[in-house]
Design goal:
The complex is a heterodimer of chains A (about 260) and B (about 375). Chain A is an alpha/beta fold. Helices cover about 30% and strands about 25% of the residues of chain A. The chains are: A alpha/beta (about 260), B alpha+beta (about 375).
């Protein structure tokens, strides 16, 4: 099977310091790493290849130095890598990023599965996965913690939820995002590192992937960041168990106590 | 210190260090406590191609030599000597095949060893044959197209876990040391079983067992080189591997220093960190100086071995002797610097001290190393006359 992994190069946030005056991240001199959630995506793709055969392609959009992240993917065992890099991609929000990625995936040709990390640790939006799936017109399943089975054009997987997990069946090709519970990423291999060292990373421009420049980068980004604030914490939750009739009575009583009914 | 390592050697060091930090450090105390073989770590080392480090490229390895192996072993030993012993024992078990095996032996075994698919062990020691390797009593008798092995090997590293065993046995008792031969025995051969797993003071993550041969029949072709070559093969194997034991010493010493200085910077007594006291400073300085000297010797000897030098016995004995005596001294002092905390299992230095002890004992006690060094010195002077 052909598996595509979407990766993002991010600043190593464990090394990032905050400028207390402007409340922004000081990115200068901070090492870049593969987004840690994408490491789980790469590992899962490699395991699926070991089990089912085929090949793994890693795709990223970013400045020329993002090639380093792709080289790291090769050191881990990924077969092919492609970097989407073009001045017109600069300043992209999740929508414009997803557009470029989906165009890159179209150029890559046939595939069975796309895997990405559940979100990137720098932006934390978790939007690029679902948006890319939507643009490609394929099913999307988030927060996969275990792939149970792949048979023909069908996959059964466990999706992590706040309480327990769902078992989800999807047709293939599909795009999934994975959580850290899914596996333990490997360390690179020596042969992989040696291969990566001399590798010239394939780079595609906006023109190479037939991208409409008006939909790329800042121009193609509808998102406007108005304000940044931490989300308000969720209220206390209580899960009722036992006899259904008693559960309903409890709900009614609690709502009455708070004068909601 | 800069040892002028090549880009590839630095790559090997960084990779071994990554495995040590990410895969070994988090579990080393548990492996030690439970006497548990590190199967997952062996798998990670295999995935990283580290088992193929010293195997020629034509057999699926990376074609590197002693220095690269020493670099990897040092990094693993910083984290856990039990793990590095399990890893390095593969090289020990493989050298007889690498140095003296036929092309058929190499084709059959080296590719699986290089990928880490099959682990290897070396079987020389017996109840009555330790420092006196001439005391081997296990026999191998040729019957038709098979050798029949009888006897018991003792304290064999990777016993039970390895799939491939290189064994020294007597084929002709009347010839004394010249009557020993080396064989390859595969796990699962009828008549080949394992004794109990030893309960050791240190390197508890590694597996140490007896190998029991009871009318164990192996193909005649499993003889390495010729009958009578057993002791030469064993000695050349130990000459090749000894530097690696030195690297274990350097690693565990450095690991202990790193822990001790980290602790000492934070430990406050008399209103100041104990690193502000000269008594502690001087201990740390001596520990690091000794360790750096040991590292310089180990790397130099490894480079000497890799240059294709014919007789490396004295040099490799010196590397093993100095680096492992250093390891014992430095790990003991690391416990001392950390005081009561160092003695507790909450910190890793007490384990490092227990682990370091074996390095002065196995693959030739440090007393035997001194014999090797002195005899070679005397031989040289005699030759000059």
């Amino acid at each position: 099977m052909h598996i595509i992994v979407l990766v993002k190069q991010v600043p190593d946030t464990s090394e990032v310091k905050i400028n207390r005056e402007t409340n922004t991240l000081i990115r200068d001199g901070v090492p870049s790493i593969i987004n840690p959630y994408d490491m789980y995506a790469i590992e899962e793709a490699l395991r699926l290849r070991e089990k089912h055969g085929g090949k793994v392609t890693a795709l990223t959009m970013g400045p020329p130095q993002a090639a380093e992240a792709l080289k790291e993917a090769v050191a881990l065992g990924v077969d092919d890598v492609v970097l989407l890099s073009d001045r017109s991609f600069a300043g992209a929000d999740t929508w414009a990023t997803s557009y470029a990625l989906s165009q890159g995936i179209r150029k890559l040709g046939a595939f069975d599965l796309i895997i990405a990390g559940k979100q990137a640790i720098d932006g934390d939006t978790a939007q690029v996965g679902p948006e890319t799936a939507d643009m490609l017109g394929i099913p999307f399943v988030a927060y996969i913690k275990k792939i149970e089975q792949i048979e023909g054009k069908k996959m059964v997987a466990e999706r992590l939820m706040d309480e327990g997990h769902d078992v989800v069946e999807t047709s293939l090709p599909a795009l999934i995002t994975v959580v850290k519970e899914i596996n333990q990423p490997r360390v690179p291999s020596l042969k992989g590192k040696m291969k990566a060292k001399s590798l010239k990373v394939t780079t595609w421009s906006a023109k190479d992937i037939n991208a409409d420049e008006n939909k790329c980068g800042l121009k193609g980004s509808p998102t406007k960041v108005v304000r940044i604030f931490p989300p308000t914490p969720r209220g206390q939750r209580e899960i009722l168990t036992g006899n259904m009739e008693n559960q309903i009575m409890t709900v009614v009583r609690k709502l009455k106590e708070q004068s909601l009914i | 210190m800069d040892y002028l390592l090549t880009e590839e050697q630095i790559m090997i060091r960084d990779l071994a260090r990554q495995i040590a930090v990410e895969k070994v450090v988090p579990v080393r105390a548990e492996l030690d406590e439970l006497n548990k073989f590190p199967s997952d770590i062996m798998k990670a080392l295999a995935q990283a191609d580290l088992f193929g480090l010293y195997i020629p490229e034509e057999y699926g390895g990376l074609g590197k030599k002693s220095l690269e192996l020493c670099i990897a072993v040092e990094e693993l030993s910083k984290a856990c000597v039990g793990v590095s012993t399990s890893y390095a024992a593969n090289a020990l078990g493989t050298y007889p095949i690498l140095l003296y095996g036929t092309d058929a032996h190499k084709k059959t075994y080296l590719p699986d060893i290089a990928t880490g698919k099959r682990l290897v062990a070396f079987g020389l020691t017996e109840a009555n044959a330790g420092s006196d390797a001439g005391g081997v009593q296990t026999t191998a008798k040729l019957e038709g197209n098979e050798y029949v092995l009888n006897g018991t090997k003792q304290w064999i590293t990777n016993g039970g876990e390895a799939e491939i065993y290189t064994i020294i046995a007597i084929t002709d008792r009347s010839k004394g040391a010249r009557g020993a031969s080396a064989f390859i025995v595969e796990k699962g051969t009828p008549g080949f079983t394992f004794g109990k797993k030893e309960n050791k003071m240190g390197i508890r993550a590694s597996s140490t067992t007896e190998l029991i041969f009871s009318n164990c029949r192996i193909p005649r072709g499993n003889l390495i080189a010729k009958e009578g070559m057993g002791f030469i093969i064993a000695m050349k194997t130990l000459d090749s591997s000894r530097t690696g034991v030195g690297a274990q010493g350097v690693g565990v010493a450095q690991g202990a220093i790193d822990e001790a200085i980290k602790f000492a910077k934070q430990r406050v007594q008399f209103g100041q960190p104990i690193t502000s006291f000269q008594a502690v400073q001087h201990m740390l300085a001596d520990m690091q100086t000794m360790t750096e000297a040991a590292r310089s010797l180990v790397y130099s000897v490894a480079r000497f071995v890799d240059s294709g030098a014919k007789d490396v016995a004295r040099a490799s004995a010196m590397a093993k002797l100095f680096a492992t005596d250093t390891a014992m001294k430095v790990t003991t002092d690391a416990v001392q610097v950390m005081g009561g905390s160092g003695y507790m299992k909450e910190y890793p230095v007490e384990k490092m001290m227990r682990d370091a002890k074996i390095l002065q004992i196995y693959e030739g006690t440090n007393q035997i190393q001194r014999n090797v060094i002195a005899l070679d010195m005397i031989k040289e002077v005699t030759r000059q006359k």
